[in-house]
Each structure stands twice: as structure tokens, then as C-alpha cells.
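Quick start: read one record
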Amino acid sequence: RDRLDLFAASRWVLIGYIGLLPGLEADLADAVRLIATTGCKVAIETAGDGGRLEQVAPALPHVDLYVPSLDEARAQTGRDDPRAIIEHYRSLGARGLIGVKLGTAGTLLSPAVKEWLEVPCLAAPGPVVDTTGCGDAFHGAYAMALALGRDFAARLTFATAAAAVLASRLTGEPRTPTSDEVEALVASRPPL
């Protein structure tokens, strides 16, 4: 509450890791609501079991990007079908870009109620050795592409490419892909 000016000066904030930070979950909805009032867009990243839905649900109407993994979303909602999961999040007031990460099957996204977009994975530029942090890379690259003014399809391609580059690197190595590396992968693949 004391430093909302920092959020007002920012375009995006990524709040993570819901499911691993139980002390954050009790205050999540209030924090997200306050941040959203500054004009800063909010993305939430989950981890572990994804956190408890009763803690996440009140925040969803104020979230601009929420894409948990299928396992995390199952744990939260008790549903197996990705579309049913997204529809459940929508029934709780989720208004932003909502989706479910499906591993090597890609990501199912919903930019609006009853709108669906199946986003395939991009092949990594080398062998997949570690998927730790791929969700973070996706979210961060999506926010960056949005801030750069790219259209929806270009944002998704850029975000998916960032995750693919990261997956080809071992934890402990310098892993964060550069924009040039992501752009090179994007250029080598057909557009979504």
C-alpha cells in the first residue's frame, strides 16, 4: 500500500509463485486489486499445486494474464478438461487472458468468454533439457511483447519461443534468453 507509485510507473507486474508462497495467498486479492487501480497490468504465475482456489478466485477479476499448468489447474478446480477449467475461472469473474499450459501439447488460451486459441509449442532450438521456469519465460516475454505494441499472435509466438529457448538450457547455466535469441527462433518458424 505504501509503494503503489512503483506499480503506477510500471506496465506489468508478475506475481509468483502462488502455491509456493502461502503467506502471500491470504493477501493476494487485495494486493492485486490495489495494483490494478494504478493501471499496471497484473499476471499471476503458479507453482507447486497452484495454490488454493479460494485464495486465487477473488483476485481473478483484477488479473490480466493467468495461465496455470494443467496439473495446477486440476488441483485448483477439480476439473480435467482444459476448456471446463477455463470456463470455471470465467465463472469466478476472470476477465483477462486466461489459459492452461498443456506441456508439449502447447497452451489453450481464452482471450474472452467462449473464445479459444490453441497455441502449439515451438520446437526448442536444441534438445529439451529442463522445463523449469518456462512458464515464467512465457509470461515475461508475453508482457514484453505487449509493451512493445505487438499484436496478439505476435505476442504468443514471442512468448512461446522464449519458453522454447529456455527449455534447451540446464538450470545453473545462464538461462534467460535474450530478445535476439527469441527473435531468431521466431524467424525460423512459421507464424501462429
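The CA atoms of residues 5 and 38 lie 8 Å apart.
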